[in-house]
Amino acid sequence: MLEELVGESTSVNLNGKVVELPVVTGSEGEKGLDVSQLRKESGYITLDPAYGNTGACESSICFIDGEKGILRYWGIPIEQLAEKSSFIETTYLLLYGKLPSQQELTQLSQRISKNLTIPDLVKKLYSNFSDETHPMALLSAVVSALSGYDKKQSSLEQSEVDIDETSIRLIGQFPAIAAAIYRKKIGKEFIEPDPKATYTENLVRMMFGETDLEKQITPEAIEALDMLLILHADHEQNCSTSAVQLVGSSRTNLYASIAAGIAALWGPWHGGANQDVMVMLQKIKDSGGDVQKYVEIAKDKNSKVRLSGFGHRVYKTFDPRAKVIKSVCDKVLEKMGVNNPLLEIAKELEQTALQDEYFIQRKLYPNVDFYSGIIYKAIGIPTDMFTVMFAMGRLPGWIAHWKEMLTSKPSRIGRPRQIYVGPTKTDYTPVDQRS
Ligand code: CMC
Predict the structure, then answer these.
(1) 224 lines ligand 1 (CB under 6 A)
(2) What does the alpha-carbon distance between residue 274 and residue 133 come to, in Å, rounded to a whole number?
(3) Which of 16, 25, 179, 345 has the highest CB neighbour number within 10 Å of its CB?
(4) What dotted CATH number matches 70-270+384-406?
């Protein structure tokens, strides 16, 4: 039973034993109870399946207010970054905690550009994978394997400089890896980057090649893709970032930690939802466009179907990233001269769900994945590459949290507890005596 809040702590009375729990207050007034000493002092642990009410750490990187639809990186609203920043500038902000000067920004761009190469490993490895392998499986495998090509990774305790170098190398190599995954899948040669082109231009260039350059690399396409990368760049303690931190807490290297994040992101309830949304919209279109029917299926628990791109653990009014994407979606498609009937179905689906009591009661709104696929599709990115794009955007966020975890105090291995509900002590019975 919880007793009243007293100053900077509260006390809890557990079977007559009173335990003081310090109150931790964040810079935006969020409050948490520090239960780290609870078990030592009382024998109790806290139970919170899926961590809906558990703070895993204190962090300075990202702030979300799910009730008000607020998302900020190092205090800067996501709407301002999406409109005014670039992905590389946002990367600087996430990694170093401040906006760069012009000189710092140029230096970072040059350092990243220097690493914009297709690692040899990628060329060798890809020939051994089936064309049916999902791009996220390839991405995770390649990123993990890159650790073998970075000598610095052999030391358990890297210096800050080494960690920084590894981070920049990985960010630089990511578009080449993503593009190579796509080229391998369509059976085409890899394309080398253009050292004069920007990060996002190179991504598109390496994916689509010289022949399609004119069509694909319009300023609108590059701008839209860069904005999507910014919108995906961080999101505090989500499933994949928590995976990166948990894996990294065992002092595994950055590559392996990021590979774990990629695996976590792949799932359809997390980053894989962007692919799932397009599959869902196409299914609705192919079956005659009956949006209401699909909403009814998504409400039926027996169907095991959810409305992809809807709902969020934290956002309970709207997802600010979805708001930005929706507001530019029409504009981007118009500028690019693309007419996608799936956009109309998406809009109708959104309206229908938003007026439905089931979704209202549960506070389920469109999330970042609901409209992002429409833009990826307009640029020409194939559906099974959508989550790879999400991963590329999220990379600086993962790295920032990984670094913060390593330098936080106390820096311990992540290791949750459990409440055991299995059989009590049971003696072994030899097989011939079992009934
Ligand atoms: N369609 C239908 N019902 C839903 C949906 C949905 N998309 N999302 C949640 N619900 C229901 C859920 O069945 C539960 O109902 P009830 O109370 O009757 O049991 C209630 O809403 C609460 O759901 P929950 O599973 O407790 O919510 P959660 O916070 O654990 O899950 C979520 C969040 C995002 C996994 C979930 O909303 C979902 O599966 N959405 C669809 C997949 C999706 O779009 N994922 C992308 C998330 S945003 C990108 C990212 O950052 O990952």
Answers:
(1) no
(2) 18
(3) 179
(4) 1.10.580.10
